[in-house]
Amino acid sequence: MNDDPGSATSAPFLHEKAPAADPIDLSSGQILEPLPEIARAAVRRMLDSPRVAAYAPGTGATELRSAVAHHYRLRTGTAVDAEHITITAGGRHGLFAAIAAVARDGEILVPAPYWSHYPTVVQLAGATAVAVPGDPEHGLLVDPERLDAARTRRTRAVLVNSPVNPSGAGYDEERMRSLRGWAADRDIRLIIDDIYWAYGPDVDNRVQPGPHEVVIGGASKVYALAGLRVGWVWADPRLTAEVREIVEHTTGPVSGPAQAAAAAVLRHENDAVGTSAATGDGVARRAAELATQRAVALEAMSAVPYLKPLPAAGGIYLCLDASQALARRLLGADDDQQLCRALRREAGVGLRAGSTFGMPGHLRLCVAEPHDVLRTAARRLTSCLTAAAELSLTTVGEA
Ligand code: PMP
């Protein structure tokens, strides 16, 4: 699933050009920040505790589950029982466990474009992913008609991610209401991948587990703690029991120090909600920074010839339509994977190929980078593609 930067088909005419010595990697999706002092202090306390090397509680540390429950309480305005939260090894293991519990031996509708890992996570969880093309007129999002067209007797669930990785489009309350109504009428479960919840204008604050909904969250993106590997599943009691069984027999408990750090950060964020600290610290600051980074990336990439950025309302990515570059076979590329490899090699800019996201002919970049890095990447792409276009014109002219 991951792009392999190593095995590009070489474009011979560019060989004498050395790849950039300092590659800019915009291919992954993480927000890099130092661990805040409150989290470091929590880890230090854990290290000094006699239980540091013991198994953490199987369902997750009580203080972390309480902090997650409190987060959803603040967001939804409803009572949330920490007993319905299960801590997992990152959001992706939460997805795995929920999918295995809900849809093993059945089908899951996956709106396209989608996070590149979904097809494999679904497959490993014993289900079959059925891609549902999003509506080009509406941000490539799906609606009940599109879901109905893909539904079969084996459909158990729909995997809804908002804002969407990679497009950044979000399901607003009205769209979510129609999906929820559709799912309830057909006894199908929405698996809500809530990992980017704060990063866009269309925050879904109606998330609520029940017979037709389960919520997957995590500390990686919104709390910038990807390396800690802390995620969770918020589910109704029956599904929670099944999810816990799967977690117990696959990863077991998540590392205690990682949970302590995540709990400290979530508690801090929960306490800041509704106070002036909420805008200066953590989640709100990151959301504001990302909005600016999306705008900077959009402006910078708009100047790159043969690639056309698709404005993103939210999320941490920007997609580029590469159809013009591909139509001209720039850098000898016949598809987005080849173009991606060639741009990494020739321009020193690492992107991700859209075909791995169900979006062939596109490239994806992560915007969670300093503005000058985004602008330098755009300049490199411009000079590389301009040179490639000139060469291809010369080659065509000579032929
Ligand atoms: N869902 C989506 C849409 C993602 O993009 C990611 C990570 N890129 C995850 C889930 C999983 O995040 P993690 O396992 O790091 O918590």
TrEMBL record:
<dbReference type="InterPro" id="IPR050596">
    <property type="entry name" value="AspAT/PAT-like"/>
</dbReference>
<keyword id="KW-0663">Pyridoxal phosphate</keyword>
<dbReference type="GO" id="GO:0008483">
    <property type="term" value="F:transaminase activity"/>
</dbReference>
<keyword id="KW-0032">Aminotransferase</keyword>
<dbReference type="InterPro" id="IPR015421">
    <property type="entry name" value="PyrdxlP-dep_Trfase_major"/>
</dbReference>
<comment type="similarity">
    <text>Belongs to the class-I pyridoxal-phosphate-dependent aminotransferase family.</text>
</comment>
<feature type="domain" description="Aminotransferase class I/classII large">
    <location>
        <begin position="22"/>
        <end position="381"/>
    </location>
</feature>
<dbReference type="InterPro" id="IPR015422">
    <property type="entry name" value="PyrdxlP-dep_Trfase_small"/>
</dbReference>
<dbReference type="InterPro" id="IPR015424">
    <property type="entry name" value="PyrdxlP-dep_Trfase"/>
</dbReference>
<keyword id="KW-0808">Transferase</keyword>
<dbReference type="InterPro" id="IPR004839">
    <property type="entry name" value="Aminotransferase_I/II_large"/>
</dbReference>
<dbReference type="Pfam" id="PF00155">
    <property type="entry name" value="Aminotran_1_2"/>
</dbReference>
<protein>
    <recommendedName>
        <fullName>Aminotransferase</fullName>
        <ecNumber>2.6.1.-</ecNumber>
    </recommendedName>
</protein>
<dbReference type="InterPro" id="IPR004838">
    <property type="entry name" value="NHTrfase_class1_PyrdxlP-BS"/>
</dbReference>
